[in-house]
Design goal:
Elements: E1 3-8, H1 15-30, E2 34-39, H2 49-54, E3 56-57, E4 61-62, H3 63-72, E5 76-79, E6 82-85
Parallel strand pairs: 1-2, 2-5
Antiparallel strand pairs: 3-4, 5-6
Helix pairs in contact: 1-3
Length: 88
Amino acid sequence: MYSILFHITSGPNNISKSMLGFLLARTAAEEGHKVEIFLSGDGVQLVRDTIIENLVGLGTGKLKEHMDILKKNEFQYMFPLCHVKIEE
């Protein structure tokens, strides 16, 4: 098992690029790796409830589905000036 950090800088203005990071993080978590996601720049917007509920990437799935899987696998978000663990 590896510990993998995904750094996502794209936000809702570049859906496919930002969603690819979450798809890769989800895949790593499903394979048993420890996943951390560092959001910076426009990527910070991806934790807003309205974005989580509605964002769908072309060929990269729904953000809500990725988040649900990641929460089950106890991943962590990291922001530039704080560190927040998301729990169910």
